[in-house]
Amino acid sequence: MEIEFQRVGKKYESGQEALSQVSFHLQQGEMAFLTGHSGAGKSTLMKLMMMIERQTSGQIIVDGVDLRTLSRRAIPQHRRRVGVVFQNHQLLFDRSVFHNVALPLQVSGADPQQIAKRVRAALDKVGLLDKEKYNPMALSGGEQQRVGIARAVVNKPQLLLADEPTGNLDPKLSAEIMNLFQEFNRVGVTVLVASHDLALVARMRHRVLTLSQGRMVSGGGFG
Ligand code: ADP
Ligand code: ADP
């Protein structure tokens, strides 16, 4: 997926200006990091990409299409093309690993055989095929985060967004999670990872976009 922000602004109804004049271009198949202090606007930028929030100025162009022109029906379709990983992975502890990963497919109405095939493929990619019957509560923090990643990729998204995905993990596990994102990127998925772990980001040698007080202070522009 190719994404272009053109002078995007977001002012919340509270009056808080979370983003201002943000411009950048992520190429199809690119991987980049998004850094910035707490409150800089990282989550807001990702919410705009998922159309959970709408910009109040500027244009967001995805694969050549201005997101403001999407019909109400096209919005869920757009979201299915975006996989999302959160810091607090938001797993459900009342069901198995398998059924956690299956959730987005059940929402989109796939048949059970197809679901089983896709869930196992996603678990295989994150190295958790042998844990499908476990309750996620019985897994380590790093494993739980990998379940969250399997769930984010089970729909075969064209864009993978991760918001502080290693926030609660030690450096070794954090590096493993970043390597997983790189593997998805290697097969053509566009990846954007928000992180304030600057040491980790520097080691990964990808492009770094930096937000400060809602402005893109480095790594932006058009290209
Ligand atoms: P980050 O992810 O970099 O910590 P956020 O995008 O969460 O930054 O927040 C950017 C700014 O917007 C902050 O000042 C935050 O308080 C404000 N903000 C975030 N969400 C909302 C909201 N729903 N309503 C009002 N203000 C918000
Ligand atoms: P919506 O009901 O908002 O239209 P979708 O089913 O289109 O949501 O899914 C939006 C995105 O969120 C997809 O990338 C999907 O993989 C992901 N998703 C769906 N359900 C969950 C969930 N329970 N937890 C985390 N991500 C989910």
From TrEMBL:
One MF term in the entry's GO annotations: ATP binding
Signal peptide from the UniProt entry: none
SMART domains: AAA (SM00382)
Keywords from the named record: ATP-binding, Cell cycle, Cell division, Cell membrane, Membrane, Nucleotide-binding
Topology within the bilayer: Peripheral membrane protein
Keyword Transport: no
Any one of the GO BP annotations: cell division
Cell compartments where the protein resides: Cell inner membrane; Cell membrane
Main location: membrane
Classification via InterPro entries: AAA+_ATPase, ABC_transporter-like_ATP-bd, ABC_transporter-like_CS, ABC_transpr_LolD-like, Cell_div_FtsE, P-loop_NTPase
Domain ABC transporter: 3-223
Domain of life of the native organism: Bacteria
Described purpose of this protein according to its UniProt entry: Part of the ABC transporter FtsEX involved in cellular division. Important for assembly or stability of the septal ring.
Family per record: Belongs to the ABC transporter superfamily.
Assembly behavior: Homodimer. Forms a membrane-associated complex with FtsX.
The name this protein goes by in its record: Cell division ATP-binding protein FtsE
Gene behind the chain: ftsE
